[in-house]
Amino acid sequence: MVVRTIFISTGEVSGDLQGAMLIEALKRCAQITGLELEIVALGGEKMAAAGAKLLVNTTGIGSVGLLESLPFVLPTLQIQRRAQHYLQQHPPDIAVLIDYFGPNLVIGNLIRSRLPQVPIVYYIAPQDWVWSVSSRNTAKLVKMTDKMLAIFAEEARYFQKKGASVSWVGHPLVDRMQSSPSRPQARAALGIEPEQIAIALVPASRRQELKYMLPVICKAAKQIQWQLLAGSGREGERERGEEGENLYSSLPQNLKLSQNSPLFWIPLSLEAYRRPIEAAIESYGLRATLVSEQTTEVLAAVDLAITKSGTVNLELALLDVPQVVFYRVSPFTAWFARTFLNFSIPFMSPPNLVVMRSIVPEFLQEQATAENIVQKALELLLNPQKRQQILADYQEMRSLLGEVGVCERAAREILKLTQ
Fold first, then answer.
1. Which among 15, 83, 153, 409 is most buried, taking Cβ atoms within 10 Å?
2. What is the CA 368 to chain-centroid distance, rounded?
3. Mean pLDDT rounded to a whole number for the chain
4. Is-contact 44 133, C-beta < 8 A?
């Protein structure tokens, strides 16, 4: 049997997930064509479970921003040196770079200059088509890669115009959501009653987000908890009042409050974040449960999500869960980007980017306050018309993500270059 070696480089939690799905598809396609694959990777536990030999676990070193990235400079350089040494000693048949643009640009240029015979595929490219602050990044990417696999149609059009060889394969979450549980199945797995209100809080997949996002989301959750419980009389007559009663009376008939059950569910992206999140739950007095093994069930089970911007927004949209999206970086990073890089984006959340209009409410930086989040969250929870509109918009978004079979299409394009 012919053996082919594939090197895959990615980072962060989302990259590990996408890498694992790709590895599984590569193995399925290779088996059909009579190939045996050896996969070596920079990635995480999901990729290792899918069959990759990990050189380094990179899921915990991702960052967004200037000051935020400083703690990860040395670890990233060490990873790059280790990858460089390995690749020169063991040249692969093909290299696949997934997202993770800064580190992958260095690794890709290394392969191009020192191992020019190795084809380079970029899968899930940086979103220059949305917020490019310099055409240099796009030019570097096009020059470095032999093939780009685009997950958005607009992304494919952008890079084609820039001279890249591009194939639009669709978004891999379309495949993943095929195996996701239904709302009743997810609720049964988590022990949530069919009519019980459940809200997901998704504050962080990067360590920096614990600092800038966790306090905001917890403050918003505390306000929502107080308003819902006060309105239902659970907090006592002193806090109930006329406004609280009106709020409770506006709850949809299929949503109820439970006296003792959790109101909030928090999927844990990395085990290292458990202690700070648990401390925040206690500090803010939230009726919340932290879940590490059933994150998909949490997302599928809830009535509403308050979430950071990221891949999780698409997951929630594909699960038909209304959401409020927000994001914060350090004030210095925000000021620098606006002042010196002319940073400006039409939208930040993937559902809005797919259709290029606002279908989910989103708040960036100074607008990402607990008060703004609470207002939109309660609208989506209590207003049936708002909920129906966002679900209808999700259907439009879903039609633009491609057909099922995304990972197989990506795998076939990659394997073509190994022949």
1. 15
2. 18
3. 86
4. no
Q: CA-to-CA distance for 20 and 383, rounded, in angstroms?
A: 39
Give the pLDDT mean for 119-145: 81
Q: Coil, helix or strand for 72?
A: helix
Residue 41, amino acid: A
| CATH tag, 2-170+403-416 | 3.40.50.2000
Higher-scoring residue by pLDDT: 163, 58: 163
Overall CATH class of domain 178-398: alpha beta
What band does 11 get if pLDDT is binned at 50, 70 and 90? confident
Query: With bands split at pLDDT 50, 70 and 90, how would you rate the model's confidence at 329?
Result: confident
In contact, 228 and 85? CB cutoff 8 Å: no
How far, in Å, CA of 246 to CA of 225, rounded? 15
Token readout for 188 is 């049964």
Full DSSP string of 92-116: -SEEEEES-HHHHHHHHHHHHHH-T
Contact assessment for residue 21 and residue 173, using Cβ atoms and an 8 Å cutoff: no
Antiparallel, parallel or unpaired: β 2-9 and 35-43: parallel
Decide whether 2-170+403-416 matches 178-398 in CATH topology: yes
Domain boundaries along the sequence of the chain: 2-170+403-416, 178-398
Give me Rg for the CA atoms of the chain. Answer: 22
pLDDT at position 240: 40
Beta strands of 300-383 (E only): which ranges?
Answer: 304-308, 323-327, 362-364
Cα separation of 69 and 336, whole Å?
14
Distances (CA, A) of 175 to 22, 96, 318, 355: 11, 20, 11, 20
The pLDDT value recorded for residue 238 is 38
SS (H, E, C) 117-172: CCCEEEECCCCHHHHCCCHHHHHHHHHHCCEEEECCHHHHHHHHHCCCCEEECCCC
DSSP summary character for residue 269: S
Backbone angles phi, psi at 369, to 5 degrees: -105, 160
H/E stretch holding 301 reads: helix 295-301
How large is the average pLDDT for residues 138-157? 92
Asked whether residue 270 carries a pLDDT value surpassing 90, the answer given is no
Distance CA 251, CA 374 (A): 15
How far from the centroid of its chain's Cα atoms is residue 61's Cα? 15
